[in-house]
């Protein structure tokens, strides 16, 4: 299946046999296999949201290859026709706890500073909580941000955030598909406990050159695509960069110099060798860089930070026959985070360095087998060589001149999986599979089976009961040091001391299609038990351990602890994906508790990201083809926090230097016993679109973040006031208007 204009592959096209029970959808690469009952002929309907429906009559006396191109709906199509467009029904199949978000809706949702953000849109879905004001971190069904698997064309992206977590790394202009999976995981996914965010880069236009971009208040972007060889191969290249460093420069004094910027690139090159073979090379490269210099008469402080991801995939798609296809992929991923800090105070020089690096090389091979109209198989294997450099060091220059920071740890993670989707009876679809995962290190080996099963039973054509169960294991752990607001994420491997984390999740729900399958609804309950989650011991972090000062390269192991977690709740979603009016309503009622032997005296406590109630209202209204209005309102119970119960006179050491200062000793009581104020916010946006006869298009995109300027708490701190200690609130973002100029040609 291809786009008639660009010739790009179309995933998710709905294919149905008229007056028959057979049906399927195209996969991520636009391929499909459909088995029909033998007869002289059959009428096949191909439909996809935003495209004209195509019907074909074919002979089914023998195997047939049928390639179809779908043309886009005309821009002036009225509401009644738009409402009749079809897409994959949520009541079909065995999928549960997964949501595919149309790229057009992601681009319409108003966001901070006008930067359209994939992960912030995902935060608006039920079962997903945000980490804090403006941040893009995902907390899915009680899991932490390090328990989410981010895949970009099958390549892992370890830290998918820019600007200290306020923006995601994914440029919506470069993406073709975004899918969130929260439970009932298919066996092809593994390595994380809580969710999968599976994204694909667009294939590019193989017929003509096309470009689009935007100029915003803090960043600009440009995407160019076109044919390498017309009709046979294509490319797409997309880039973004902020200019915060240039905007900050005029406001800095001669004693202060600081700058921050990020940039990222996406690319994909497609080559159709022949009807049965296709090769593509895709990738992502992004970096964040920050520097600051502060001088006065007594001290001179300099800091440099950089972090970023590199991810690339080389894949070969091969069709053996009408029933069997395969994909072979070579995948590379690299994440680095590096801090250097130098502090000069009179004659003393103190230095700090923190570095975390993960490098992966993977080989993956997968077969897709369509045995019959009611039976399909997926068989695959993947092997990944991990190289870790988990380091965190505090040192003085005079004592640390000749230290080698090379502290590599290697591990081999491999999995083989089988998935079988079948219909034992016409109304029942079952997706049963198993994944066998292994993890091999120099000191310890692990082997775990991971059974997966999900099922859907259609009570009637538009209503289905669905359920799923999955066991997931995670061998690569993220330990986060809170308090600084920086992305201080230490990615550490499973070892003889740190065991693999494991989750067991059960989901049960009801799905319904409304109004010609253009509106879908679901209600789901879930229960998840997590074992051996990784966190810091009470009072421990990256920089405070004596072992670091003593140059122990493995000191990070002694600061970590493992515990367990419980999360359960109820989710509701009503989603209209297209039409003159579109959007969704999402609601989550949930509880999340954690327990670590070395934290909170071994007692259970509510996770910081535990939210009892979470509501999202998203509306997009198209007044005409030229004016689009959007609004988002969110509400959430305040995050759980620890607040001091009492303070006592004492002294404390400043871990970043050799100085001491008078400071009260604080009694914090139980962990996370208090709540921040509830969070709520309204964002609005409007687009003015003008299309020219030449094919060019320009859009003015105006948006307001936090329209009624709610002072949502970002964090709390304690200060002395009137002879006693009081708790103060810091709010980060008031009302923020923004404007972006977008163009296409």
Question: Could you give the topology of this structure?
Answer:
Layout: E1 2-3, E2 14-17, E3 23-25, E4 42-47, E5 54-58, E6 69-70, H1 79-83, E7 98-100, H2 103-108, H3 118-122, E8 128-130, E9 138-140, E10 148-152, E11 155-156, E12 161-162, E13 167-168, E14 175-181, E15 195-201, E16 210-215, E17 219-229, E18 233-242, H4 244-248, E19 256-274, E20 277-295, E21 299-319, E22 324-345, E23 348-372, E24 375-396, E25 409-425, E26 428-440, E27 445-460, E28 463-474, E29 476-480, E30 489-493, E31 501-514, E32 519-536, H5 546-549, H6 555-559, E33 560-576, E34 581-596, E35 605-606, E36 613-622, E37 627-636, E38 640-641, E39 646-648, E40 651-653, E41 660-662, E42 665-667, E43 674-675, E44 679-691, E45 697-705, E46 713-721, E47 724-731, E48 736-744
Parallel strand pairs: 1-6, 10-15
Antiparallel strand pairs: 2-3, 2-4, 4-5, 7-14, 8-9, 10-11, 12-13, 14-15, 16-17, 16-48, 17-18, 18-19, 19-20, 20-21, 21-22, 22-23, 23-24, 24-25, 25-26, 26-27, 27-28, 28-31, 29-30, 31-32, 32-33, 33-34, 34-35, 34-36, 36-37, 37-44, 38-43, 39-42, 40-41, 44-45, 45-48, 46-47
